[in-house]
Design brief:
Layout (H helix, E strand, L loop, with lengths): L7 E2 L10 H18 L17 E6 L5 E4 L5 E2 L2 E9 L2 H12 L3 E2 L4 H10 L3 E20 L2 E17 L6 E12 L2 E5 L5 E5 L15 E2 L4 E5 L18 H10 L4 E7 L3
Antiparallel strand pairs: 1-5, 2-3, 2-5, 4-5, 6-12, 7-8, 7-9, 8-14, 9-13, 10-11
Helix pairs in contact: 1-2
Length: 265
């Protein structure tokens, strides 16, 4: 149901005629879709096209990931029009509209580009480090009708992760690993389309066949050891005790700042 019944063509390919009633019906549907699409590209130029049949051109991102869109504009939603196209029927136009609305790209139409992107996504190492955060503590002062606030700053230890080996490293490391996800698009009994996100996989080509689509961003980076999302503020509360905090407070200048909140006569 969700596979296009037309083959890829170029502007030099042969086209077939369709009867007048079907042509009129499709023109009405296409007109509505193009009206919606043009809201995304009002300033884009229209590219001349002499293809008479219902068709959709292939539009690509700067990374050459693309999808078919029923438009003759030079650009749609930041995607650039190419001369490649497919002939479409009424069901195709509805699916294409849904894909355009949700920024979906068919994996099969972008297999080579996706494989190239995945090849560049190499694992890398991050290092845990400790840093000092100056926690502001407000103190409100009131004198008669006037009041103001002063702050003193308490140095507190925090932890994060970096690829910079010159930081105050703790000796802990982790391997950052790229994983990918796609979407399954289904159609209910009322003809309405729905999308469902897949589990993370190491290669999009490993997805079950029903997960045919990806979004503009189909990559997430996880900790290779546990496959969990990276946490960049994961300090351990028991890494430092009260004595060390007291020592740091003696070594770090405590800064104060005053701010008048309100003064009345």
């Amino acid at each position: 149901m969700l596979n296009f019944d037309s083959t890829h063509k170029s502007v030099d390919g042969n086209v077939n005629k369709i009867d007048g009633k079907k042509l009129f019906k499709r023109i009405v549907a296409i007109g509505l879709i193009i009206a919606n699409l043009t809201t995304f590209c009002a300033c884009a130029k229209t590219v001349p096209c002499d293809i008479e049949e219902d068709h959709a051109h292939f539009y690509v991102t700067q990374e050459d990931v693309g999808r078919y869109i029923m438009s003759e504009k030079e650009y749609v939603k930041g995607l650039e029009r190419t001369d490649n196209y497919i002939e479409v029927n009424e069901e195709d136009t509805e699916l294409l509209e849904y894909m355009n609305k949700h920024d979906l790209f068919k994996i099969e139409d972008n297999r080579d580009t996706i494989e190239d992107i995945e090849k560049q996504d190499e694992d890398y190492t991050e290092y845990r480090y400790k840093y000092i955060y100056m926690q502001p503590i407000p103190v409100v002062h009131s004198t008669g009708k006037s009041s103001f606030v002063t702050y003193y700053y308490v140095p507190m230890p925090r932890y994060s992760w970096t690829t910079d080996t010159t930081r105050n490293l703790t000796g802990e490391t982790r391997t950052c690993h790229h994983m990918y996800y796609g979407y399954k698009v289904t159609q209910d009994a009322n003809g309405k389309y729905h999308m469902e996100k897949s589990e993370l996989v190491d290669d999009l080509m490993e997805l079950p066949s029903e997960y045919e689509y990806v979004g503009k961003n189909f990559t997430t980076i996880v900790n290779l050891e546990n496959k969990e999302a990276l946490d960049y503020e994961d300090g351990k509360e028991d890494d430092i005790g009260d004595k060390e905090v007291e020592q740091m407070m003696q070594e770090v200048d405590v800064r104060e700042a005053e701010e008048d909140y309100s003064k009345t006569n």
